[in-house]
Amino acid sequence: MKLLVLGGTKNLGRHVVEAALKAGHDITLFNRGLTNPGLFPSVEHLVGERAAPDALKSGEWDGVIDMSGFLVHDVRRSAELLRDRVGHYTYMSSIAVYADKATPGMTEDGRLLAWPHGAPEDHFTMDLYGPSKVRCESLLEAHFGDRTAAVRSGFVVGPYNPDFGNWGEALAHGKPMECAARPDQPIQYIDARDLAAFLLRLTVDRHPGPYNAVSHSTTISALAETWRSVVPNSPPINWSPAEDRFHLADEGLFQLDNTRALTAGLTLRPPEHTARDYINWIRAGNTPPPPPH
Q1: For the segment 177-216, what is each residue's pLDDT rounded down to a tens digit?
Q2: For residues 35 and 10, is the Cβ–Cβ distance under 8 A?
Q3: What is the pLDDT of residues 273-293, one digit of tens each?
Q4: What does residue 12 show for φ and ψ, rounded to 5 degrees?
Q5: What b/e string do you get for 65-85 counting C-beta neighbours within 10 Å, with b at 16 or more?
Q6: Is the pLDDT assigned to residue 259 strictly greater than 90?
Q7: Helix 129-144 and helix 72-82: axis angle, to 10°?
Q8: Which InterPro entries match (predicted)?
Q9: Cβ contacts of residue 26 below 8 Å, gap of 6+?
Q10: Residue 49 contacts residue 43 (beta carbons within 8 Å)
Q11: Is the dihedral of CA 82, 83, 85, 89 positive or negative?
């Protein structure tokens, strides 16, 4: 298939492109050409800004995977340009879309955040992150109908990604893991490679609608002990660090129902595999990027 990836040279986007290339797809990347511009020399690179994507005014693709759609203005512009020239539009959304942050077991039909009256569509703040994702999902559905999917994830873990990076670095260097959350705090996450494969599958198979792309819910202590288990004689966990890297107050967002995603083909590797691969990646000389917030 001919696939267009918006972004694709950092964090999760790298895994999406790698998975697509491994599957034999014809890839075009559209981004600013500023982050890792030397990656993927065998694919077509279109350089431009999301706000004024002139490079996307021509060309046709079987599917698009949008990894860089943060501003409503930018996603609206790409939707208008691509509506009649792509077969399917898969959008990387977030579990931050949900208005109810306390109820466990929410499906994709859970109540979503409203758009604040008078909020700008061309300016990003963390307060607008969730509402922006909701608004982008809505406008894409208006433009593409059942030719669009929205993938809602939370923590994305693994090489090139920031989440759980402090755990990976600690274990890689023989230091105590730190976590400010309660040990019984619920947690969900997803391996970046599993998420990339799911994004690709939805696009290729043209599955519509929203999906909670998350792991099964566990407790932070159970997950932390699983990570510790892959490094023999690792130090005890520090449950009272000076900095909270997880921000897990919204318990309902980490007990979401992932049945719809699993039914559509999401596969989840064991957490010890994710931990081991991340730690080995760091030991090989890599450094997790800083958190985006």
Answers
A1: 999 888 999 999 999 999 999 999 999 999 999 999 999 9
A2: yes
A3: 999 999 999 999 999 998 765
A4: -60, -35
A5: bbbbbbbbbbbbbbbebbeee
A6: yes
A7: 10
A8: NAD(P)-bd_dom_sf
A9: 1, 2, 3
A10: no
A11: positive
Beta bridge partners of 49: 52
In the block, which residue shows the tokens 């065998």?
42
What per-residue confidence (pLDDT) applies to 117?
93
Are 16 and 194 in contact by the 8 Å Cβ rule? The answer is: no
Spatial contact of 186 and 246, defined as CB atoms under 8 Å apart: no
Query: For residue 245, what pLDDT is reported?
Result: 67
Residue 236 has pLDDT above 80, yes or no: yes
CA–CA gap between residue 214 and residue 188 (Å, rounded): 6
Amino acid at 45: H
Structural domains for the chain: 2-283 (3.40.50.720)
- Residue 98 scores a pLDDT above 60: yes
Q: What is the mean pLDDT of residues 104-128?
A: 94
DSSP the chain: -EEEEES-SSHHHHHHHHHHHHTT-EEEEEE-S-SSTTS-TTSEEEE-BTTB-GGGSS--EEEEEES---SHHHHHHHHHHHTTTEEEEEEE--GGGBS--S-TT--TTSPBPPPPTT--SS---GGGHHHHHHHHHHHHHHHHGGGEEEEE--EEESTT--BTHHHHHHHHTT---B--S-TT-EE-EEEHHHHHHHHHHHHHHT--EEEE-----EEHHHHHHHHHHTSTTPPPPBSS-SS-SS----GGGGS---HHHHHTT-----HHHHHHHHHHHHHTT--PPPP--
Angle subtended at Cα 152 by Cα 146 and Cα 155, rounded to the nearest 5 degrees: 160
From CA 201, how far away is CA 193, in angstroms rounded?
A: 12
